[in-house]
Amino acid sequence: MRINGTSAPLAGVAQWPLPSDAADPDTIPEAALRTEDAAAPDMQDTSYAVTLDEPEKDTSDASEPALTGTVLRPAGDDTITEGARHPIIPPVFRDRVTFEAAVRKLVGRWLHITGYHAVRAPWYAVKMTGYAALGAAKLAGRQVRWWWLLEQEPLRQAAASRGDADLWLKLHREAARVRTGRGLAVLGEVVSIGAGGVLAAGSPWTVAGAIAVSVPLLARYGRPAGKNIAGQAVIPSRYRVITHDVVLRAYYAAGLGHPDKPQQQVQFAAPGLSADGDGSKVTVDLPYGKGFNDVIKAKDALASGLDVAISQVFVTRDATSHRRHTLWVANRDPLAVPVGRTPLLRCKPTDIWEPAPVGLDERGRAVTVPLLWNSTMVGAQPRQGKTFFARLLALYAALDPYVRLSVFDASGKPDWRKFALVAHQFSSGLVMTRDGDPVEILIEALRELKADVQDRYQRLSDLPTDVCPEGKLTREIARDPKYGMPVRGVFLDEFQEYYDTPDAEANKEIASLLLFLVKTAPAAGVFMVDATQKPSGIGAGQVATSFNSFRDNHQTRFSLRTGSWQVSDLVLGAGAYGEGLDSSLLLPSYKGVGILRGASDDTPTVRSHLADAEDAEKILLAARDLRERAGTLSGHAAGDRTARQVRDVLADAYAMFLPGESFLPWQELAARLADQLPASYGDLTAEAVSAQVRSFGVPSVNGKRDGQVLKGAKCDAITDALRARTP
Predict the structure, then answer these.
(1) Residues ≥6 apart with Cβ < 8 Å to 611
(2) Given this model, what pLDDT does residue 342 score?
(3) pLDDT tens digits, residue range 260-275?
(4) How far is it between the farthest Cα atoms of the chain?
(5) Where is this region: Disordered (predicted)?
(6) Which end of the chain, C or N, has fewer beta carbons within 10 A?
(7) Which domains does the chain have, with CATH numbers?
């Protein structure tokens, strides 16, 4: 191996060429297989294509017996030892969405240019005619000056001024002779043009051809300096030219190295600075002792040194070294360029087993989010596009007719109302509606989801291996109605509101159910998408703990603009700020722009597609039609408004007391209600029964039961409550 032209051995890596006397190329003496730690044969090979340290002195004992060993080569593609490979097929041709976007952009550009010039074509004709007349006059004047030998005039004048008659006469005779010859040539030109015009007059095509050729040439000749016949349909972008010297200046100005100190120079990895999309890319090696965290802290200074806006500077880690990273500088602010409307407007069926297209990254590459097997959290300040992004994911899921949707919007905004067309379970706001109490509807739905998830795990484990090879949900099982296990999507907007309702017991149950689902449901084919504008400071005690656990258990995170880096870290997950991810740096004008973390190995800044209310309604109408044809429309969308039978909870509670009983603990009261009235109370907890009974003014008091002091209700208190409400 060589670095900077110097050979150096690599520790732990066989040196080539092998000894000539080795019969087996994979069998070599120990002297060629020096290792740092012979006791760690399973250690991962992290060698580099170039040596990273100075050559070590050979301290081996020549008298030691030579041992043989086998060279272990990495299996498959190893980017560390072999180097990264450029794709054979350019990325724009491998991704259908990206290719279509590039084609639309190119075609749209040329259509605009064609239309722009077509509208102005009459004016261009007038300008060309005028410039052609000027060109003809300029050309005639030049011919006259050439014929009259005007360039000799200064010489004759100088001879006359000196009184040199002989020289003047000589120049005069020479001028007369030349003028005679050139005059004949000019006369020939005029006669030829006239004769050609007379001959061509009988052929319109010849005249048109002559005009088509001569007018543009004369117009170009007669065009004044700085004037163009045609205007510019597209104004070229102006951007800062990035060179190696500019990059070095920026890094040294930011304190990330020093050009004159030994071992403190900033270097570039091959292939150096190159164009990459709408910007420039270079892989940078920092001096020893500097790392990626230093670059993140100096990002402002880097942008200043590059003389660009901070929104044009992007740095990403390199897996081979902590002091190596990739710098990408955009030619213009990429986040200020909208990406247009969602491709879901085609209203074609989607497949939840494939990731959802959500927008483009800073380099114009398509970005997708896998929904299945994941839970996704969206966070942002108000009016930054949080709901639009969550709804975009919901629209993708809605276009798959085999996905059963549960949509709950605590804010009650109009953004989600049309999902009632396709949702199996749906509620909006926190105020009582004709469909019932939204909080109760949510609790009912979460209980049903929990029971479904638990049942799925049991049934999947019982299926034969030829149907369910790995004990996991498959596409065939999910789409076969006989199994009753469709993929389910749960969408909650402003989910923090469900942790802070006026009913403390309901808050606890919601918190417990949501935590169970976010931890357990995705693996059973029940994914979640949850949006919030307040990712912390919700609830108290157990509710607050459950809220934080729920927030932290999302695998995929999307953060639009936030108020501070601390809030950004809560949305994107712990450690995001240390990786250079800070959504508080996004500008207020960036609507629908956010940082996506956890969806892939990359962490792009995404410009999301737009789907406004009108677009959403169009897509949802198409989604409903797909479900009707597939026979998968169910629940709320199918008109199922049947809810639990409304019962008199006070009268039912009173009926649970046996003769002579004056006190019942809440746990025992709930058990008796569930046993005797399972249709109405079978899935209610003791806390839920307590909350409903106490809402009528029945106090929760201490009482003895089997020698223990427990919380419960007295029969007399329930009797008084019944009498109090009787008119």
Answers:
(1) 341, 342, 344, 345, 388, 391, 392, 395, 619
(2) 94
(3) 998 899 999 988 898 8
(4) 154
(5) 1-78
(6) C
(7) 1-85 (no CATH), 121-222 (no CATH), 244-332 (3.30.980.40), 376-638 (3.40.50.300), 649-725 (1.10.10)
